[in-house]
Design a protein that fits this description.
single chain; alpha+beta; 4 helices; 3 strands; 23% strand; globular
């Protein structure tokens, strides 16, 4: 299937370790939403941040810290923080 092929091609080209490091640096000691992290690092595609946040949560380096209202989506979204 074409969509699966293009998704896999993109996955293989992504330097996930570097992106995770950028996200961790952006978080610092703060609690931020994915959109706030995205703005801080100067990108505009949520796919730059969201998949890496999932990986960071699975590895135990980031955790959900709560919820915050997002004016763009008009929904509550997760706030993330680095684990201690």
């Amino acid at each position: 299937m074409i969509t699966e092929e293009t998704r896999n091609e993109s996955f293989l080209k992504t330097d996930r370790a570097t992106r995770r490091s950028i996200i961790l640096a952006a978080l610092g000691d703060e609690e931020l939403t994915a959109r706030e992290i995205l703005k801080r690092i100067g990108f505009n595609d949520m796919n730059f941040v969201r998949p890496r946040l999932t990986e960071l949560m699975q590895s135990g380096r980031v955790e959900a810290a709560g919820k915050k209202w997002d004016n763009i989506t008009e929904r509550n979204v997760t706030v993330f923080r680095r684990t201690k």
